[in-house]
């Protein structure tokens, strides 16, 4: 049995433009969620979602279902995110602006209605430290953590997305946990 998204992609490849719209509606949230985890900026993540689906659209002529559609779209999303981060790093290193700008970052967790200001500040500080620590992980470790923790993929699915083996994924996650624990020890 072919998964529904793969069938929609095959229908789109056969010329059914409505199938592409359904694919986007069914998958844009998971792509946005993953992209946001990489960049922590909603507007940038939304731009990346558009880029991902432009790539999906452009790949219609050469699409061959070798895995679930979501696995394939996660791979595209990871590539778009990593390319964006690399170009940002290059842009920042070439920039003369020492300040680095004022990013507005949306909180990952809903804010309780009556949170005392001190608790909110502590939470925001911790979230910032976690984002910073995640950003300091090697790309492969960060990708494995994001796919496991926030996209809730199995080790097998992560291995497919990252084009590696299950033992390699487990090793990446173990090293990432150890590194994060070390980086966040003072805050936890």
Q: Mind explaining what this structure looks like?
A:
By secondary structure, the protein is mostly helical. It folds into 2 domains: 1-94, Rna Polymerase Sigma Factor, Chain: A, CATH 1.10.1740; 114-188, Arc Repressor Mutant, subunit A, CATH 1.10.10.10. The chain contains 8 helices and no strands. The longest helix is centred in the middle third of the chain and has 26 residues, at 69-94. Mean pLDDT is 84; it is low at 95-110.
- Under the CATH scheme, the architecture of the largest domain is Orthogonal Bundle
CATH C-level class of the largest domain is Mainly Alpha
Structural class computed from helices and strand pairing: mainly alpha
SSE run: HHHHHHHH
State the distance separating the first and last CA atoms.
46 Å
Relevant CATH superfamily of the largest domain: RNA polymerase sigma factor, region 2, helix turn helix motif
Q: Give the biggest sheet.
A: none
Strand content: under 5%
Question: How many runs of DSSP E, i.e. beta strands?
Answer: 0
Rounded radius of gyration (Å)? 18 Å
Number of helical regions: 8
Here the CATH topology of the largest domain equals Rna Polymerase Sigma Factor, Chain: A
Let me know the average pLDDT: 84
The helix content is: over 70%
